[in-house]
């Protein structure tokens, strides 16, 4: 009885975007479109390596007409292998859902069906079929493309990109690069490829500093780094330089707040860097750096810094006649460790 239950709950393999590979059916799930595009491209390139004459068909699930899937899946005159890519499964027409479930029971030979589903409940019955016994019998896989929001996840993504390109970069330079490109993953990946192309595969802090010079985020983190390191004069000079060149005060406040919050999280916490990283959703090196930066602080002063962060944000958003003074005061408070 237990064995039968276990069989009925069979699951397909779940892999990361960088492990995407061809299979009879591939479900690419999750909201991170850049990772989904990368996974789909990896599958296409792998199939083309096997057969240059690969047939590629694209289907829009939202505007799908009945029978379209079976038309493109039917064997051609020369029986070339096929790749069928279906976009927008989360917006599927009823006709597509019906045909796709029927296709799973009668899949075409030498064909890879890639289903892209970003989010939502639409098409759940189809996804359950792919993830369950039906998909398992076909050797289906799911490529999970979860949204990347945390700094630690963005750092991990960037590290993976450098590894993929066979390049090496110091941890400090990696952090600076990720801090400078806070937009979409595509922008960050493009910056990494350009940097490796321009500089080579052994990168230094200076290489990254030159490549990010002038970016708002990079300047903001320079101010925050100087302040949390206790270099009050440097922090003020960097702050005034950034403001004089047109840098908005809000990104600089955000960078400093991020570091102060990290310090507050690790203050007094016990355990290894790895254990604390897991607890706080940080990378181990971020924990170690935040622990170093808390030296000389008292718990009360750190609490006051958190209060000042909120007060400074209010000042920058119209709550003060002299918002820049409020920001300078906060930067000095952090740089002097509350003294």
Summarize the structure in words.
- The protein is an alpha/beta fold.
- Helix content is 59%, strand content 9%.
- The protein has 17 helices and six strands.
- The protein has a six-stranded parallel beta sheet with strand order 1-6-2-5-4-3, sandwiched between helices.
- The protein starts with a helix and ends with a helix.
- The N terminus is likely disordered.
Topology:
Blueprint (H helix, E strand, L loop, with lengths): L1 H7 L4 E4 L8 E5 L3 H18 L4 E6 L7 H6 L8 E6 L6 H12 L5 E7 L6 H8 L1 H6 L2 E4 L6 H14 L6 H10 L4 H15 L5 H8 L3 H13 L3 H13 L4 H18 L6 H8 L3 H10 L5 H21 L3 H13 L4
Parallel strand pairs: 1-6, 2-5, 2-6, 3-4, 4-5
Helix pairs in contact: 4-5, 7-9, 8-10, 8-11, 11-12, 11-13, 11-17, 12-17, 13-15, 13-16, 13-17, 14-15, 16-17
Instruction: Determine the fraction of residues in helical runs and give it as a percent range.
Output: 55-70%
User: What name goes with the CATH superfamily of the largest domain?
Assistant: P-loop containing nucleotide triphosphate hydrolases
Radius of gyration: 26 Å
Q: What is the fold named in CATH at topology level of the largest domain?
A: Rossmann fold
Principal-axis shape equals elongated
Instruction: Please give the count of helices.
Output: 17
What is the first-to-last residue Cα distance?
A: 69 Å
The percent range for strand residues is 5-15%
């Amino acid at each position: 009885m237990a064995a039968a239950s276990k069989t009925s709950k069979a699951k397909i393999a779940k892999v990361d975007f960088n492990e995407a590979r061809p299979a009879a059916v591939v479900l690419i799930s999750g909201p991170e479109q850049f990772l989904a595009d990368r996974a789909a491209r990896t599958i296409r390139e792998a199939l083309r390596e096997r057969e240059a004459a690969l047939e590629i068909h694209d289907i829009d699930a939202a505007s799908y007409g009945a029978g379209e899937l079976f038309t493109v899946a039917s064997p051609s005159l020369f029986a070339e292998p096929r790749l069928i890519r279906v976009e927008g499964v989360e917006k599927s027409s009823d006709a597509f859902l019906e045909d796709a479930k029927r296709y799973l029971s009668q899949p075409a030979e030498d064909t890879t069906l890639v289903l892209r589903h970003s989010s939502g409940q639409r098409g759940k019955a189809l996804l359950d079929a792919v993830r369950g016994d039906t998909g398992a019998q076909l050797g289906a896989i799911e490529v999970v493309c979860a949204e990347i929001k945390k700094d630690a996840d963005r750092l991990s993504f960037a590290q993976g990109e450098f590894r993929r390109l066979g390049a090496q970069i110091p941890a400090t330079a990696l952090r600076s690069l990720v801090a400078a490109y806070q937009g979409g993953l595509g922008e960050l990946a493009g910056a990494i490829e350009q940097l490796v192309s321009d500089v080579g595969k052994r990168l230094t802090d200076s290489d990254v500093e030159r490549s990010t010079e002038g970016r708002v985020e990079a300047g903001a983190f320079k101010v925050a780094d100087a302040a949390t390191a206790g270099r009050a004069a440097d922090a003020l000079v960097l702050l005034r330089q950034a403001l004089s060149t047109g840098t908005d005060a809000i990104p600089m406040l955000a960078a400093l707040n991020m570091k102060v919050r990290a310090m507050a999280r690790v203050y007094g916490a016990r355990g290894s860097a790895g254990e604390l990283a897991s607890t706080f959703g940080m990378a181990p090196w971020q924990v170690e750096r935040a622990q170093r930066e808390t030296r000389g602080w008292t718990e009360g002063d750190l609490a006051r810094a958190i209060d000042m962060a909120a007060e400074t944000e209010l000042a920058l958003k119209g709550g003060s006649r002299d918002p820049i003074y409020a920001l300078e005061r906060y930067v000095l408070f952090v740089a002097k460790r509350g003294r």
